[in-house]
Write a structure and sequence with these properties.
single chain, about 130 residues, alpha/beta, Oxidized Rhodanese, domain 1, five-stranded parallel β-sheet, two-stranded antiparallel sheet, 4 helices, about 25% strand, globular
Length: about 130
């Protein structure tokens, strides 16, 4: 199954459609606390390393996802720029999740090697955010 990627406007439309879409934010708890998509569920793919240095894989990622979402749930994955959420979506599909979409550009935006934004993310498009 190939993973479908959507832009933030499509993600917002689906989340507001009443069709039961869930937004799974796979950023760290610290990133999530600064701001996120309203109604988002936070299950980090990576966690902040010891003493706040670097990132380490969340060895309980799929178990935490399974506690929050049924395998038949409609899910949109998102992160900061788009790489972690794509990996998370692939892991979910490998574990039987059949209705997973990934949001390109993430919360902030995809950037190229020079730091230029190539795909504006959720917040750069002026879409609603929250910290609660």
């Amino acid at each position: 199954m190939s993973l479908k990627r959507i832009d933030p406007e499509e993600a917002r439309r689906l989340l507001e459609s009443g069709e039961g879409y869930n937004y799974l934010d796979v950023r760290t708890e610290e990133e999530f606390a600064v701001g996120h998509v309203p109604g988002a569920i936070n299950v980090p793919l990576l966690k902040t390393g010891p003493e706040g240095l670097g990132m380490t894989p969340n060895g309980d990622f799929i178990e935490e996802v399974e506690m929050a979402l049924e395998p038949t749930a409609r899910v949109i994955t998102g992160c900061l720029r788009g790489a972690r959420s794509m990996k998370a979506a692939q892991i979910m599909v490998q574990h039987g999740y059949s209705q997973v979409l990934d949001m390109r550009g993430g919360f902030d935006g995809d950037i190229d090697a020079t730091g230029a934004v190539t795909i504006p993310g959720w917040v750069r498009r002026g879409l609603p955010t929250t910290t609660v």
